[in-house]
Amino acid sequence: MDLVAKLPAMEDTALAVLHSNAERLEQSGTSAQKSAAAALKPAIEAELAARREAKLSKAREAAAAKRAAKPVAAKRVAKAKG
Fold it and tell me: Which of 23, 42, 64, 79 is the most buried if burial means most Cβ atoms within 10 Å?
């Protein structure tokens, strides 16, 4: 199994370290390391972007749910007082 296939299963911290290593090797590695890092870096960055988007989407959904729940609670309080 190649490294690209393992990216989705990696922990966020491990993926971040791999990204840092790929950036470092792309700048200061041997020619083989530079080539391997350059080939792997787009897949790493795509996985990082997908995870960021998933987290943002989840946060947006949670915020929307929270906003949607507030008016209902306020109406219940108003009914109880009235």
Answer: 23
Give the DSSP letter string of 59-74: HHHHHHHHHHHHHHHH
CB 15 within 8 A of CB 6: no
Q: How many residues does the chain have?
A: 82
Domain count within the chain: 1
Cα–Cα nearest to 27, from 13, 18, 38:
38
The pLDDT tens digits of the residues spanning 20-63 come to 999 999 999 999 999 999 999 999 999 999 999 999 999 999 99
31 Cβ partners below 8 Å, 6+ apart?
none
17 is in which domain, residue-wise? 3-81
d(CA 41, CA 39): 6
Q: In this structure, what token pair is assigned to residue 7?
A: 């990216």
| Helices first, then strands: H and E counts in the chain | 3, 0
